[in-house]
Structures are given as C-alpha cells and as structure tokens.
Amino acid sequence: MMASLFTPKGFLTYGGAVLLLLGLVGFVALNSEASSPAFWLDSGENIAHTALGIIALAIVFVPGLNTTFAPYYRWIVILLGIVALFFAAYGFLQAGQPVPNTFGLANLENPADNILHLVVGAWALYAAWRPAPMMAR
Known about the structure:
Elements: H1 8-28, H2 43-61, H3 65-69, H4 73-93, H5 112-129
Helix pairs in contact: 1-2, 1-4, 1-5, 4-5
C-alpha cells in the first residue's frame, strides 16, 4: 500500500519521485534559458534534484535503509521543508541578479523556481505536522 501524499513517508515517496523526474528532465529538456525561458534548470539544480530524489526514494524503498531511517522520516521531511523554504526566500531575494545567482553554483529563476520551492516547502511541513487521521472502527 502506498503512503498518503500528506505523510512524511508519502512526501518522501512522491516528492522523491517528482524531484528525480524533474532532475532527469532538466538534464534533457529544460537545461537552458533558450529551451524554456520561463523555467529552466541548470546543471547545479539538476544534480541537486536528482540526488535528493534518489536519496528520498532510497530511504523509503531500500531494505535496511528504510528500517534504519523510518523513525526519522518526520525529521527528514521537516529538514527538507526548511531547506526548500530557504531556497524560496533566497531566490526571491536574488531576483534580477546575474546568472548564476545562487552561491555561484546555480540559477534560481524568479518567480518559477521560487514558487516551486515554496510549494514543496509548504507540502513538506504540512506532511510532517499534519495530525494523524482517526482510525476507522
């Protein structure tokens, strides 16, 4: 049974899949401003998205890793939420700066990247702090 979208395990599962897909598509299709001016992903972003996606999926599905990390899913998701919100805020502050505008390694397009990071951060924190549903009798 797949985890709910709004649980820590669900966030790691679905969010990990989305990050991995985004990273891989970024390497192939969204890799330059010429290919997609409103939303393009440079190598730094693609490496980060791909690595985070693989790690998230591994700690959910790889035997041994999943049992080791399961007690910490909530804290991992909180950390990922904070990181996503940091990059959303940082990206808005860096709007209009020359490429690469993120620590000299990557470019955060404003507002597309920033809104994406804001949504992912909110999703992560909601999944981490959402009250557990009542069990059916």
